[in-house]
Structures are given as C-alpha cells and as structure tokens.
C-alpha cells in the first residue's frame, strides 16, 4: 500500500548489507523486471531498494524524490523458498505501479480526489482517505486478474503483521484487512479477530463497490 513519505529515510549502503539482504534485493529486482513487462515497460525509474529497520513503513511512493517508488525491504515476511520472495515482491510491485497506471494516475486526478475528500475530512486526513480508496480500487482490479497471487500476498502480510505485533493489531489494520476480505471475498483472518471494525468496513466497502469500476464516479 503506497504512502506519501514525510520523514527522511535511512538507506543502508550496499557494501554494509549482509548476504541475505543482498539476496532479497535481487529477488525484488527480479520481481520489478517482471512487473515492468506486465505493464509493457512504463517509463518509471527503478525503485529505491532499501533496508531501514527503524521504519515500519514498507512500500511507498516518495513525493520528495520525484514521486519515485521506495521499497523498504527490512520488514519483509520471511520465506523459505526464493520464489516466494519474488512472488511477494511481484504483487507489491504490481500494486505500486498501478498507482501510476490506474489511480490516481496523474497529479490532476489526485488533486481532484483530494478536493473531494476534503468535503468530509480536513486536509491532514484527505491524503489518507484518497490513498485507501486508491489501494482498494487497485487491489480489486489486480485480484480480478491475479486472484491467487493477490490473495496470497494479503494473507502473508496479515500473518506477518500479526506475528510482529504479538497478535495485537491496530484498529486501522483490522479495518483494512476486513475491507479486503469483503471486497475480494477471501478469508484472511480467523473468525471474530476483525469483528470490532465490522460496521465501518461495511460502510466503506459499499462505497468502494459502487464507484470503483467507473473512474468518472471516483470523486463522488
């Protein structure tokens, strides 16, 4: 899920990376190449592949670095098979590139979406609302084309976050995953673990399902 960065990232020089970290970067590069081919090689720079263990944020578009994709690989789930790393990064890369290809696509659409969001929330929350809506639209579309891959990535991400948080997810994280369960008709969490966000998830999913297919209605 893409996020706009506010704080400066700390990148570890390649020479200071251990063998495992170097291998993970190679897996991410392989996935990126596969993503470029999938989208017929859009004119995008290769992402910044970093390891910043002080930052929980993983994958985002940085408006302070020419809107370039940054992939912080420090908090990647641990896999046994190399191909699982590639598949995971492929799903993530598809999502990030879709922010350029689908929504918000360009600055004008992004500005219009922000303006629409600010009818209901202040300027601090508007970018969050727009980003969540864009994430849902993108992942629904990606899931239609790659259902097994996108479902698998979400389940692995959920399990990873649950493990790192010692089984205590934030209400916001619960909300996101419950929405994905409803939007994609998949099972991510065990019964009742996301029940506290059922009401708000229902309301948001109803809105997204109504508008996501027709981009002329996104601002509504």
Features:
single chain; 220 residues; mainly alpha; 2 domains; 53% helix; disordered N terminus
Task: Outline the structure in words.
The protein has 220 residues and is mainly alpha-helical. It has 2 domains: 1-101, no CATH class; 106-220, no CATH class. The protein is 53% helix and 5% strand. It has a 3-stranded mixed beta sheet with strand order 1-3-2, covered by helices on one side. Strand 2 and strand 3 form a beta hairpin. The longest helix has 20 residues, at 19-38. The radius of gyration is 17 Å and the shape is globular. It starts with 18 loop residues before the first helix and ends in a 9-residue tail after the last helix. The model is unreliable at 1-10 (pLDDT under 50).
What is the secondary structure topology, with strand pairs?
Elements lengths: L18 H20 L9 E3 L8 E4 L5 E5 L9 H20 L5 H11 L8 H20 L1 H18 L6 H14 L13 H14 L9
Helix pairs in contact: 1-2, 2-4, 2-5, 3-4, 4-5, 4-6, 6-7
């Amino acid at each position: 899920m893409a996020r706009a960065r506010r704080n400066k990232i700390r990148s570890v020089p390649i020479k200071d990376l251990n063998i495992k970290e170097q291998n993970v970067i190679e897996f991410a590069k392989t996935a990126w190449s596969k993503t470029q081919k999938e989208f017929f090689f859009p004119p995008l720079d290769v992402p910044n592949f970093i390891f910043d263990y002080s930052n929980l944020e993983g994958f985002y578009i940085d408006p302070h670095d020419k809107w370039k994709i940054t992939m912080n690989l420090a908090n990647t789930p641990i896999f046994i098979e190399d191909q699982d790393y590639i598949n995971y990064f492929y799903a993530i890369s598809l999502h990030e590139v879709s922010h350029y290809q689908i929504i918000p696509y360009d600055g004008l659409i992004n500005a219009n979406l922000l303006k629409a969001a600010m009818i209901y929330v202040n300027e601090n929350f508007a970018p969050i609302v727009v980003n969540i809506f864009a994430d849902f639209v993108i992942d629904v579309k990606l899931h239609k084309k790659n259902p097994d891959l996108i479902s698998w990535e979400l389940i692995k991400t959920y399990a990873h976050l649950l493990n790192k948080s010692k089984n205590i997810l934030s209400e916001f994280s619960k909300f996101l995953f419950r929405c994905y369960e409803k939007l994609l008709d998949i099972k991510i969490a065990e019964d009742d673990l996301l029940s506290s966000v059922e009401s708000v998830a229902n309301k948001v999913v109803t809105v997204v399902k109504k508008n996501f297919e027709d981009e002329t209605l996104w601002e509504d």
